[in-house]
Write a structure and sequence with these properties.
Mean pLDDT: 92
Structural class: alpha/beta
Order of helices and strands: HHEEEHEHEHEHHEHEH
Helix content: 25-40%
Strand content: 15-25%
Length: 296
């Protein structure tokens, strides 16, 4: 893990000096050689003007639907950069999994991504995917978007998904807890890079809005929630605090902290056993909240 973390940190030292356009190209190129599970099929489409893809395991074990939002600080990355991870989660859950390229900042700052998430969820309900049989998940900024989209649906009395998964979710854009400094020399997501994303996505006076930082949201009607955090990641304490607040509000929360792991260590599934184990835990959680049986 130390070697992987150092490689990621070295990349970040280069990336932080780049423009957002250069950052996107860098990660797009980096993603190309990644292995892709052959047992998962891709089907590309367009939803509300947004590029999207269904990831369908060759052997589905659920009638449920998984909606997945990729990370990247709301400024970079795409389905392409995350397709190996998405495919592995689809395979672990046995569900057809929909991933969508939402609009990115700084060209499209808050609330553009939140509006896109709302459109996509409405598309799912409109096309016969039952909310009570759908789980929403995401990593980092995508985990933020998963949480925010459900908070918004609850507040507006719209259909609410059956459950939610946050993988190293970026839950508080307004403050930094102890782990930001404590793990800064080990995790690859540093404060200077975090600040660059935040400033591009949202004005500082909006950072404590629940639809920007879900840690400030009302979780009393929230569906079952799985939160996974790396013990060595900068966001660890933020995620743990959200788990604490959501539990206090009455939500059914599973908080899993993986010792020694960095931000979204799930990307290292070909190298690190804990990555495969964390993905397997996500699969178990999704299966528990979606219908079993062959997909039709």
């Amino acid at each position: 893990m130390k070697l992987a973390s150092q490689l990621f940190r070295n990349n970040m030292k280069r990336v932080v000096k780049m423009s957002f356009e250069e950052q996107r190209a860098f990660y797009q190129n980096l993603a190309r050689p990644n292995p892709f599970p052959s047992q998962v099929l891709e089907s590309w489409l367009e939803i509300e003007g947004l590029r999207a893809c269904w990831f369908t395991p060759a052997r589905t074990s659920s009638n449920g639907t998984l909606l997945y939002w990729h990370g990247g600080g709301y400024c970079i990355c795409s389905i392409d950069t995350h397709k190996e991870l998405i495919a592995r989660i689809a395979q672990a859950s046995g569900c057809r999994t929909l991933a969508v390229d939402y609009r990115l900042a700084p060209e499209h700052p808050f609330p553009c991504a939140v509006e896109d998430a709302e459109k996509v969820m409405n598309y799912l309900w409109r096309t016969g995917h039952a909310p009570e049989n759908t789980v929403v998940a995401g990593d980092s900024a995508g985990g933020n978007l998963a949480l925010v989209s459900i908070l918004k649906a609850i507040a507006e009395k719209q259909p609410v998904p059956a459950a939610c998964v946050g993988i190293s979710p970026w839950v508080d854009l307004a403050s930094k807890r102890k782990s930001h400094a404590e793990n800064a020399d080990f995790d690859y997501v540093g404060p200077q890079f975090d600040a660059g994303w935040r400033q591009a996505y949202v004005n500082s006076d909006e950072a404590k809005k629940p639809y920007v930082s879900p840690i400030y949201g009302d979780f009393d009607q929230f569906p079952p929630l799985l939160l996974q955090a790396g013990g060595a990641e900068t966001l660890r304490d933020d995620i743990a605090e959200l788990a604490k607040r959501a539990t206090a509000a009455g939500a059914d929360v599973q908080y899993q902290e993986w010792e020694g792991m960095i931000h979204v260590w799930h990307f290292l599934a070909t190298l690190v056993p804990a990555s495969k184990e964390a993905i397997a835990e996500i699969g178990h959680f999704v299966k528990a909240h979606t219908s079993s049986g062959s997909h039709t």
